[in-house]
Automatic annotation (TrEMBL):
SMART domains: Glyco_10. This is Beta-xylanase. The keyword Nucleotide-binding does not apply. Keywords: Carbohydrate metabolism, Glycosidase, Hydrolase, Polysaccharide degradation, Signal, Xylan degradation.
Length: 368
């Protein structure tokens, strides 16, 4: 057995028996769960998802496009998940690279893959401050021209996948940590004002009446100024008849910080409004020791955070979609963004499973 696999196997075995607390030990897979995948263990109608690696940070890495080049990766993606989210492939800079040119190839391939594998798709994303192409961010447009550009983008992209996207992240990360609208770095809010938010939800609903339309953000797992701002905005929009169907927490967590213990009551505030909720981008990064291999205690804590996030979602009416932001350390964005942190996903680079994987699987299986 190669050294890394031996270390992996030892760490996983040890971590499964080194409980962090009475409620936090990563339950070892029981006999009836052996061999089951996450989607096989999940309750009916509960979607367990993963981001589909491609674009973004992958373009700066020394490997080919994961989704199109890595067959074992794609096989695991099909076997383990009942929902997929294009990590970058539906973002403006990829799908609308020039003002008069769309490039649907990568997104089409993911949607076809999902259909072949009986998976739903989370569309990501339409109105955001990041990963917009230069022609848009640096262009000289009147407000009317900019509004027409956004409307045509929504009609073209959402219309193309009509009936094939279960949930759209219509508006992504529109508030600051203090609950103020991003009226500086978000081109749409800066140039068109907050009224564009209702417009983009209406345009999306017109283009695909089947899709559930979400706000999506990080740092909203707890009750705080940011999640409060979403609660107030959504209540206001729904009172105006704007088709907002859901609110989702990305849940990019770190063992450097405590677990957001009020995640469940926070999501329940949105559920109480009749909204769907979702976890859309969970990963749990950790400070890597020298040598880069997490300790058994770190793996146990990570498994605990995965389990508690999933448990919170399962406990909230209308939280029926739970997505991790990539399932293997081989392709994770975390080491690229957070120097010294990593090992954030549920599988090692060789797709062998971590305690966090078993924590998800046993939590799902207990709800069937
Ligand atoms: O565009 C620049 C390019 O000009 C430059 O030459 C190149 C090399 O430095 O970097 C390019 O930027 C890349 C960017 O994607 C745009 O494609 C960054 O390197 C790259 O790290 C970045 O990664 C993506 C990131 O979003 C962008 O914010 C990740 O792949 C992707 O996983 C991540 O996903 C986001 C979700 O969409 C929203 N929630 C947060 C989540 C993590 O940031």
């Amino acid at each position: 057995m190669q050294p890394i696999r031996l270390v992996t196997a030892l760490l996983t075995a040890v971590a499964l028996v080194v409980p962090l607390s009475a409620t936090a030990s990563a339950a070892p897979p029981t006999a009836d769960q052996h061999g089951k995948t996450l989607r096989q263990a999940a309750p009916k109608k509960f979607r367990i998802g993963s981001a589909v690696a491609g674009g973004g940070h992958h373009e700066t890495m020394p490997y080919p496009d994961p989704f199109s080049a890595d067959r074992p990766y794609r096989d695991r993606l099909a076997a383990e998940f009942s929902s997929v989210s294009p990590e970058n492939q539906m973002k403006w800079e990829y799908i609308h690279p020039e003002r008069d040119r769309y490039d649907f190839a990568a997104a089409d391939a993911i949607v076809r893959f999902a259909q072949r594998n009986h998976q739903v798709v989370r569309g990501h994303t339409l109105l955001w401050h990041s990963q917009n192409p230069a022609w848009l961010e640096q262009g000289e447009f009147t407000a009317d021209e900019l509004r027409a550009i956004l409307r045509d983008h929504v009609r073209t992209v959402v219309g193309r996948y009509q009936g094939r996207i279960q949930q759209w992240d219509v508006a992504n990360e529109i508030f600051t940590e203090t609950g103020e609208l991003r009226t500086t770095d978000n081109i749409w809010l800066r140039e068109l004002g907050p009224g564009i938010i209702a417009d983009v939800f209406r345009w999306t609903h017109q283009a695909d009446p089947h899709a559930e339309l979400f706000f999506n953000d990080y740092g909203v797992e707890s009750v705080n100024a940011k999640s409060d701002a979403y609660l107030a905005l959504i209540q206001q929009l729904r009172a105006q008849g704007v088709p907002v169907h859901g609110f989702s927490a990305q849940a990019h967590l770190s063992t450097r910080y405590g677990f957001p213990a009020d995640l469940e009551p926070n999501l329940k505030r949105f559920s109480a409004l009749g909204l769907e909720t979702a976890i859309t981008e969970l990963d749990v990064r950790m400070d890597l020791p020298d040598g880069g291999v997490p300790t058994a205690e770190q793996l146990t804590q990570q498994a605990d955070y995965y389990r508690r996030t999933l448990t919170a979602c399962l406990n909230v009416r209308g939280c029926d979609s739970f997505t991790i932001w990539g399932f293997t350390d081989k392709y994770s964005w975390v080491p690229v963004f957070f120097e010294g942190e990593g090992a954030a996903t549920v599988m090692w680079e060789d797709f062998s499973r971590k305690p966090a994987y078993y924590a998800l699987r046993s939590t799902l299986a207990d709800r069937r």
